[in-house]
Design goal:
heterotrimer; A alpha/beta; B mainly alpha; C mainly alpha; A: Rossmann fold; B: mainly alpha; ABC transporter involved in vitamin B12 uptake, BtuC; 2 domains; 2 strands; 1% strand
Chain lengths: 234, 461, 340
């Protein structure tokens, strides 16, 4: 069992089930990536892990504890951090205030963590007093990730962090994510850019219609001809 | 009980039966004249509630300006039925006509400006200049006209009067007035978030009342217009009509037969007086019932037509209806205008019943809020629900006052006669009606959002 | 030289009847609109009960003020109502927090559409209105005491030698000073404290705020308490400046909404600017300029009418016209608030 595991996830938004018993998980200091075609339930799986979806079956385990019944807020308190795909910054707040809000639950001194975030994303330090809404797309993603890191999470969950950013920014962002892995955080990511994402992944899950199709290391999936043919465009 | 909740038709029949029983009870316990008076206002309330139900129940539009639309109906009653005041027309008619022309010219100029000029600061400036210039231009004619008209025998007239037509016509005209105002408000506020319509209707209704109170040349303002012509006979004429006396004599022949001649004449006279007032009220009730039935029938037909289904589809899911290519804002405007027109009709009927137009009596609590309670308690989206809501809430509103005063009397019975608190409580009992109605609204909204007669949802196969 | 004095007289006249009253009224509206805009920003509905919340807070303050006056407690120069004000705020805060728990919370939990909130707030408005009328009655009430004027018209005339006097009532001065202090405090709170920032974050992006662990119940509670304080203070200042009548407070709703929307609803800065825009429009449009123009124009051009754009009876219409203009031209308001 991994550090964070979603087992036999089954459920949807009221209608037909979107997730049909899929299982995903991630270890500390590792990157796990969920890929798959549109409508495969990738983001839904992530929402299920975070408790934003009513599940009919299955359970979510964090560090050997069952957290299936916890609210999303409670899971944040337990060390899970989530970066949504859209609307993931407070546009009216400054960069620094965004980071402070990320650390809302912490009572201790947050300046050290903030320095670490600024070290990771130096551009944010220069723009710390600017409203997040005024930043470019790539910089906003950095604020979004930085906000999530402010809780000093054990698990960082990212929903398509590179959606809508240029290839250069994407590479840069993946580099930063690799750096975050160094600190021992478990990283679970949903990605459209499957090839690049699998390249940095320790583990990859290919979901199709809410079920696990392939599960292996990122390297192995990239090498698998079936996966390449069906999901990576050859 | 389970049959009642399951079968909408049974439920409706039961509700109306209870209502009828309550009214009969008033007839026996208090007086038939009072019962009929209550019924007449119940009928008008029901029509008003139907209008609001069209807006809220069919389309989810929240109109906080019912009072204003009802008052527009009221002013229509006055403008249609009162005789014209030729002296006032002679004094200010020409200038008033010029100011109307000036108004039209200004509007045309503004529209032309919006059509012909490009969007930008230039156009904005031009429009501002036109609005300000037009305002002064209109007032050049308007001010002397108003002064002249209001100077004409101000104790009795001081206004233009009306058209001198049968007052029943004003019910249509009132509907048209309200529809026009609703169109203007809807144009501005619909299509934005729902809160804006609520705020805009609140505003327009306050302004309509202000105008009716202050534009003396049109409405005599707070000096009121009394003695509006009636669509039904006058008591005094009935009392001198041989035919009516004959009727009464025939109706009460049993009771009259036992009396001696002198007593008999006095008793007959008394009966004629009582019955003339009942008869007049019955005439009104008949007229109002006809209107109610027509409006109700049209509402039911409309609700079950393809148009009505589309409206409810839009109400239940604006986004997907919009995605299916329905112009949601345009539909909302239609329905807002229609509903307001019905409120306007009811407003005209109310003024007709009162026989006078008194702008000072329009009160948002009595009009806007009470009608809302009627719709919600009756059952939003259900036309019969609106009707029963109109009846029941008006009944409660009228009967709450004696009950409340009595209750306060009982509660404070232990206190001394001259206790200030006691006097205050008894005096203020009437204000508790508001509190009770507000509470009723909140309780129904929360615990029984469907109301007495919930909307009947038909599954389309 | 004579003309210069005429011009100064005209300006003093204008200050006396437009500038000073407009400033005071604008401050009252700004405080009211701030409350509406905060509730909108956090709870996302236009709170129709705000005017009657103001009336409730003012009523509590008045009752206590009367009692204080009867036992001879006062502030001397300043109105006694200032002592009673904190109690009024506390009572109003209790009322709105109770209302939230009893009424609004249920709909929040069910994620009801905004129009339901608006309707419910209309219900609350009428209930509050009923309570106020029941307790204090529907009539005009006065409760101001202390020194009436900061600057007396006669003293002003004597000192300056001008023929026009400038009077500044204590309540007007007090209104402006308190409004400024409150606005500064509120902005400090919103910009500098953790709770204030969390409120802004919650208003900005509710889902992300929840993901950051911000407790929505606490944010809502704080918002209501602040709104109650602003409403009570605005109501008491208005009542001191003019008089207290429940129906007038209900009618204040329209200019308050207009102010909040003109400035951009959900935007605190907008509410303040909007308050002054509405107040000054109202006062300048309903002021009779006759005397003002007599000072400025040569005798041959002197006006014979009152030179009033609209009678004061139509002051509500001014708010409404501003509202309509904003909806037509720029529905987001001056400071680009949320599009309602």
């Amino acid at each position: 069992m991994s550090f964070l595991t979603g087992e036999n996830l089954t459920g949807g938004y009221g209608g037909a089930d979107i997730l049909k018993g899929c299982t995903v998980g991630v270890e500390r200091g590792k990157i796990a990536v969920i890929v798959g075609p549109n409508g495969a339930g990738k983001s839904t799986a992530m929402k299920a892990m975070l408790g934003m979806l009513k599940m009919r079956e299955g359970r979510v385990m964090l560090d050997d504890r069952d957290i299936t019944d916890l609210s999303p807020q409670a899971r944040v308190g337990e060390g899970m951090a989530f970066v949504p795909q859209t609307s993931n910054v407070f546009v009216g707040l400054t960069v620094q205030e965004n980071l402070e809000m990320g650390a809302f639950l912490r009572e201790d001194d947050i300046s050290e963590t903030m320095d670490q975030v600024f070290e990771l994303f130096p551009i944010l330090k220069d723009k710390r007093d600017q409203a997040a809404g005024e930043l470019s797309g790539g910089q906003r993603q950095q604020v979004a990730v930085g906000r999530a890191l402010m809780t000093r999470p054990q698990v960082l969950m990212l929903d398509e962090p590179t959606a809508g950013v240029s290839p250069i920014v994407m590479d840069e962002l993946f580099d930063r994510i690799l750096e975050i892995r160094q600190t021992g955080v478990a990283i679970l990511m949903v990605e459209q850019n499957a090839r690049q994402a699998l390249a940095i992944a320790d583990k990859g899950y290919v979901l199709v219609t809410g079920e696990n199709r392939y599960t292996d290391t990122g390297e192995a999936l990239l090498a698998d001809p079936d996966v390449r043919k069906s999901f990576l465009g050859g | 009980m389970s049959a009642l909740t399951a079968n909408p038709r049974l439920r409706a029949t039961a509700a109306f039966a209870v209502m009828a029983a309550l009214l009969v009870l008033v007839g026996f316990a208090q007086s038939w004249s009072l019962a009929l008076a209550i019924i007449n206002l119940c009928l008008i309330s029901a029509i008003m509630a139907l209008g609001v139900n069209i807006q809220w129940g069919y389309a989810g539009l929240f109109n906080v300006g019912i009072m204003g639309f009802a008052a527009l109906g009221g002013v229509a009653a006055l403008l249609v039925s009162m005789p014209a005041v030729p002296e006032a027309w002679a004094a200010g008619g020409v200038n008033l006509a010029f100011s109307a022309l000036a108004l039209i010219a200004t509007i045309v100029a503004i529209i032309a400006c919006m059509r012909l000029m490009r969007r930008g600061p230039g156009r904005t400036l031009a429009i501002v200049v036109l609005v300000v210039g037009g305002f002064f231009f209109i007032r050049v004619f308007y001010d002397p006209a108003v002064t002249a008209i209001e100077a004409v025998d101000s104790a009795k007239t001081g206004y233009l009067g009306g058209l001198g037509l049968p007052i029943v016509l004003s019910w249509f005209v009132g509907g048209l007035f309200a529809a026009g105002a609703a169109w203007l408000v809807g144009k501005v506020a619909l299509g934005l978030r729902s809160d804006y319509l609520a705020i805009a209707t609140l505003g327009i209704s306050e302004i309509i009342i202000t105008m009716l109170k202050n534009e003396d040349w049109l409405t005599r303002g707070v000096k009121n217009v009394t003695g509006l012509p009636r669509p039904v006979p006058y008591e005094i004429n009935l009392q001198s009509s041989d035919r009516f006396i004959g009727w009464v004599e025939w109706l009460y022949s049993g009771r009259l037969a036992d009396l001696g001649d002198s007593e008999r004449a006095a008793a007959l006279q008394q009966l004629v007086i009582e019955n003339s007032s009942l008869f007049v009220k019955l005439c009104y009730a008949g007229l109002f019932t006809i209107v109610l039935l027509v409006v109700l029938m049209l509402s039911v037909l409309a609700l079950n037509s393809p148009w009505g289904r589309m409206m409810r589809a839009i109400r239940d899911n604006e986004v997907s209806a919009g995605a299916m290519g329905k112009n949601v804002t345009k539909r909302h405007l239609q329905i807002f205008v229609l509903g307001s027109a019905v409120v306007g009709i009811a407003g005209a009927m109310l003024t007709t019943l009162d026989g006078q137009f008194t702008p000072g009596t329009y009160n948002p609590l009595r009009f806007t809020f009470l009608v809302w309670v009627m719709v919600i308690v009756g059952g939003s989206g259900n036309n019969l629900g609106a009707v029963i809501g109109g009846f029941l809430i008006w009944f409660m509103w009228v009967e709450a006052e004696p009950v409340g005063t009595w209750l306060m009397g009982v509660l404070t019975a232990g206190m001394a006669e001259d206790n200030r608190l006691r006097a205050h409580l008894i005096d203020s009992a009437q204000h508790m009606r508001l509190f009770v109605m507000g509470l009723l609204l909140l309780i129904v909204l929360r615990f029984s959002p469907g109301g007495l007669l919930p909307e009947v949802v038909r599954r389309q196969s | 030289m004579d003309y210069l004095i005429d011009v100064i007289n005209a300006l003093v006249l204008f200050s006396n009847f437009v500038l000073v009253p407009g400033l005071a009224y604008g401050s009252q509206l700004a405080l009211g609109a701030l409350g509406v805009t905060l509730v909108f920003g956090i709870l996302r509905f236009a709170n129709f009960a705000h005017g009657d919340t103001m009336a409730f807070g003012t009523m509590v303050t008045i009752l206590l003020t009367w009692w204080l006056q009867s036992v001879g407690v006062g502030l001397g120069f300043l109105p006694t109502a200032l002592i009673a004000l904190p109690v009024g705020i506390a009572a109003t805060a209790l009322l709105v927090v109770f209302t939230d728990k009893a009424v609004y919370r249920y709909y929040r939990a069910r994620k009801a559409v905004p129009v339901v909130f608006v309707m419910v707030s209309v219900g609350v408005m009428f209930m509050t209105n009923g309570v106020v009328r029941f307790i204090i009655g529907p009539d005009d009430r006065r409760f101001s005491d202390g020194e009436r004027f900061l600057v007396k018209a006669r003293t002003f005339k004597e000192v300056t030698g001008l023929s026009e006097g400038l009077a500044i009532r204590t309540t007007q001065g007090l209104t402006v000073v308190i409004a400024i202090a409150l606005v500064v405090a509120l902005f400090w709170f919103l910009q500098k404290t953790k709770t204030g920032k969390a409120m802004r974050a919650y208003s900005d992006n509710e889902d992300l705020a929840l993901l950051s662990g911000i407790n929505p119940d606490r944010i809502v509670l704080v918002t209501w308490v602040i709104a109650a304080a602003l409403a009570t203070i605005a109501g008491v200042l208005y009542g001191l400046d003019k008089s207290f009548k429940p129906f007038t407070y209900f009618q204040l709703l329209l200019p308050i909404f207009a102010a909040a929307i003109v400035g951009g609803i959900g935007q605190p800065v907008g509410a303040i600017v909007g308050g002054y825009v509405v107040a000054f429009s109202e006062v300048t449009i309903t002021y009779a300029y006759k005397k003002f123009l007599i000072y400025l124009l040569p005798e041959s051009l002197e006006p014979d009418g009152l030179m009033q754009l609209l009678s004061t009876d139509y002051k509500l219409a001014v708010s409404f016209l501003i509202l309509v203009a904003v909806l037509l031209v720029r529905p987001t308001g001056i400071f680009s608030g949320r599009l309602l």
